[in-house]
Amino acid sequence: MKKLLIFTFFVLLTFSALAKGGQDGAPQDTSDVIKLNKQGFDMRLTDPEQTVAAAGKALVIAQKLGYIAGIGESYRVMGVGNYYLEKSVKAIDDFLNAIKYFKQINDLRDQGKVYNNIGNLYRYTDYDMALDFFEKSLAIATKVSDDHLKANLYLNMGVVYYHKNSFNQALNFYNKSNALFTVLNDSVNMLQCMQNKGVVYFNLHQFGLAESLLNEANKRAKQLDLNEPVASIDLTLADLYIAQNKFDDADKIINEGVIFSGIVKSEKIQSDFKYTRYQLELKRKNYGRAVAYLYDIYKQDSTTYMQSSSAQTNLIQEQFTQQARQRENEILLQRQEYDRVKFWGVAIVAGLLLVLVGLLINNVKRKAKTNIQLTNLNAEVSRQKDNLDRINHHLEEIIDERTQDLQIKNKKLSEYSSYLSHQIRGPIATLKGLMNLEKEGLVDQPECIRMMNKCVGEIDDKIIEMSDMLHDPRRAGF
């Protein structure tokens, strides 16, 4: 009987191996996953759709192999691709999945990379939130001595401070980032540092230095076949040429940028080029064309705003529904595994009648255990659904509260404007009258100066009073 059971065990293993071989097709290993993820990440600035596609293929292979690190990296690269495709909801979903798998294997370094990626999602919308994620990632990068991640974080933090109009802080971070990328010989990110510094110098009205840096960055981006940086560099160069009244140069660089933004399929950059064309035609005094561009921008911005508002709401909801979807996936995988086991059990029972009783007992126990697990998981999914309903209700209350707060602030600003017009106009009119009297010689100069000082003092007092009223949270109006 013992020999028979051993023989049955080996038959089961043989059937299982044949089944897996028939399903998997050509043999694949972890190197395929690593290769596909690297290819996808390298294409993020050239063709982000290919980034998502390559990472998706890597994910399928990694899941078949049970390669946890590969699954996490595949989700992270897909998130990067969706970020460049401006699909923030899909991006945050991918990043949350990546974090989950990296935590399973205690991969601190890759967790830091994902926190950096999440910070980039908030880089243009919530500066404080972005800096929080960057600081969290920087702490990890410092702990594991990852200079490449640190360099990327300095670059991203510089972008945040640039958008906060802290140009000197932005330049400081760009220089720290460039120094590390130079040591690492990372030509792509060195190019990004050069571009960002050029943008800062443009905003500081140092046009010569800005033009030199941006043209060199444009040249290197084309050499490296980086379409997205070429388009964004062209956008800044166009603004620079318009500011210097170099209209032909601006027109030429806009045409080039539109082509490259079309290659990377970036609706945001294409919209920015429309606005730049509007600025160009307005400065050329081609008012008809300028109005046409402005109307087109207005229509697009209305649609974009609605999509953006929806995306932000979905972004919050996605974070709370992520765990529920993971539970559902676990249930589906367990059901598939159960069906597979049941199928092979039936096939083996048909050929091995001598061990029928033992197999039936084992199968009944397995089925009972699986049913208990499925019942528990279904109950957990129901609890998660109830939690989500409560969270959605709470979100609606928050939205109503913030809407009411905005209405109060708008009313206070309106009152401030009215108060400013009423209180300041009188002293200013007096000043203008005194100036006219002094010009006509109808008033003594010392007396005129004394009265003008008095008016200026009144204006200063009113401004201080209005500033105190505006910033005093206890005062609801003027």
For the residues shown, what is the average pLDDT? Answer: 82
CATH superfamily of the domain at 186-321: Tetratricopeptide repeat domain
Distance from N terminus to C terminus (CA atoms, Å) equals 96 Å
Number of strands: 0
Total of helices: 17
Percent of residues in beta strands: under 5%
Quaternary form: single chain
- What is the CATH topology descriptor of the domain at 186-321? Serine Threonine Protein Phosphatase 5, Tetratricopeptide repeat
Overview in brief:
87% of the residues lie in helices and 0% in strands. With 478 residues, the chain is an all-alpha fold.
Question: In words, what does this structure look like?
Answer:
This protein is mainly α and 478 residues long. Among the domains are: 186-321, Serine Threonine Protein Phosphatase 5, Tetratricopeptide repeat (Alpha Horseshoe), CATH 1.25.40; 337-471. 87% of the residues lie in helices and 0% in strands. It contains 17 helices and no strands. The chain has helices spanning 2-24, 30-42, 48-65, 68-84, 88-104, 108-121, 127-144, 147-163, 167-184, 187-203, 207-223, 227-243, 247-264, 267-283, 287-351, 356-440, 445-471. The longest helix is centred in the last third of the chain and has 85 residues, at 356-440. The chain starts with a helix and ends in a 7-residue tail after the last helix. Mean pLDDT is 82; it is low at 17-26 and 305-317.
What order do the helices and strands come in, and which of them pair?
Layout: H1 2-24, H2 30-42, H3 48-65, H4 68-84, H5 88-104, H6 108-121, H7 127-144, H8 147-163, H9 167-184, H10 187-203, H11 207-223, H12 227-243, H13 247-264, H14 267-283, H15 287-351, H16 356-440, H17 445-471
Helix pairs in contact: 2-3, 2-4, 3-4, 4-5, 4-6, 5-6, 5-15, 6-7, 6-8, 7-8, 8-9, 8-10, 9-10, 10-11, 10-12, 11-12, 12-13, 12-14, 13-14, 14-15, 15-16, 16-17
